[in-house]
Design brief:
Blueprint (H helix, E strand, L loop, with lengths): L5 E3 L8 H13 L4 E3 L7 H9 L7 E6 L5 H14 L5 E7 L13 H10 L3 E7 L3 H10 L4 E5 L6 H13 L2 E5 L10 H8 L5 E6 L3 H12 L6 H13 L20 H4 L2 H7 L8 H8 L9 H5 L6 H18 L1
Parallel strand pairs: 1-2, 1-8, 2-3, 3-4, 4-5, 5-6, 6-7, 7-8
Length: 328
């Protein structure tokens, strides 16, 4: 069992080591016991080791073997992760968003790597992350994984919440990523209340600032009820974000012409939903102008786990962004 409010450690790669240590220390002191990271999150794992190396027995750590292609890759990546985090084991080792499920009968598959890592005591449990519901359902139904990590937020579809219920039925742990929709769901109280009724769901809140952590801790200390007013707001959010919207997962990158696709594909929403002063600077405008350089190579389309059309989204959002600049 882990703390219901948990820590997503991707964002701490953007802060220095001492800032990360202060945030992680405060989180653990406040009762957060579950921390999720990945080998692909630059120095996130090193910062966890730096901050919590001497408090390892107080936390459950989940990591992901990013980019693993086979059994040997999984083992090499988890060995490096253990070194970075100054620990002899992780509590959950996850396959990181595979495009298809590995063959459990192939002795050289990534699944075989997970099992060997568990057998060797490098991890206590094994899991999988994904952004594609059909693959997630298949993984849960297989009975091969202890946990599933999948995007879930207050504005998720009924099918996504049914997936969480399936995990409960199958005794598979459900780790909710993107609880704030990559930052587009800016009302943390709404986001928190929308997931709270689902007792088997463990949201990992992505945190890189102390004030973000304090807001989440305050919500955990006094959980908001899902009132009729909040439910109505959830419906308004669903309506505005209906259709495809970019969650900023970053799987579309790198771009051949160096466009920041996760920002460019949702900037029209960002200027309406987030503090917008920085979006008007000359430097930011120059960054968004790169959308005109898109050669429509199609790479980002094939990589998008939500099957969006990033070039089309970028054009739409650039138009909305320019309209916003004119009115700002």
């Amino acid at each position: 069992m882990v703390s219901r409010t948990s820590f997503g450690a991707l964002p701490i790669q953007r802060v220095d080591f001492d800032t990360a240590k202060a945030i992680l220390t405060r989180a653990v002191d406040a009762g957060i016991t579950f921390i999720d990271t990945a080998s692909g999150y630059s120095d996130s794992e090193e910062k966890i080791g730096y901050a919590l190396g001497d408090r390892r027995d107080e936390v459950f750590i989940a990591t992901k073997c990013s980019g693993a292609k086979n059994r040997a890759d999984v083992l090499a990546k988890v060995e490096r992760s253990l070194e970075r985090m100054e620990t002899g084991h992780v509590d959950v080792l996850q396959l990181h968003n595979p495009s298809e499920l590995p063959d459990p009968n192939d002795p050289e598959s990534t699944y075989a790597g997970l099992v060997e890592a568990r057998d060797r005591g490098m991890t206590r449990s094994i899991g999988i992350t994904n952004h594609t519901r059909s693959l997630a359902v298949e993984a849960v139904e297989s009975g091969l994984y202890d946990t599933l990590q999948f995007p879930l937020s207050a504005i998720s579809s009924a099918d996504d919440f049914a997936l969480a219920a399936l995990c409960e039925k199958r005794d598979v742990g459900f780790i909710a990523m993107k609880a704030l929709c990559g930052g587009l769901l800016s009302n943390a109280r709404l986001a928190f209340a929308g997931l709270r009724p689902y007792e088997n769901v463990v949201p990992i809140w992505g945190i890189q600032r102390m004030d973000e952590l304090e807001e989440i801790l305050a919500l955990e200390a006094d959980p908001p009820e899902l009132t009729a007013e909040l439910e109505a707001e959830i419906e308004r959010e669903k309506a505005e974000l209906a259709g495809g919207f970019c969650r900023a997962c970053g799987y579309c990158l790198p771009c051949r012409v160096d466009i920041n696709i996760p920002v460019a594909a949702r900037i029209g929403l960002m200027v309406r939903r987030l503090p917008s002063g920085r979006f008007a600077t000359p430097e930011f405008q120059a960054e968004m102008a790169k959308v005109e350089d898109c050669i429509d190579c199609g790479d980002c389309r094939t990589r998008c786990p939500y099957h969006l059309d990033p070039p089309a989204l970028m054009k739409t959002h650039r138009r909305q962004y320019l309209e916003w600049l004119e009115s700002a």
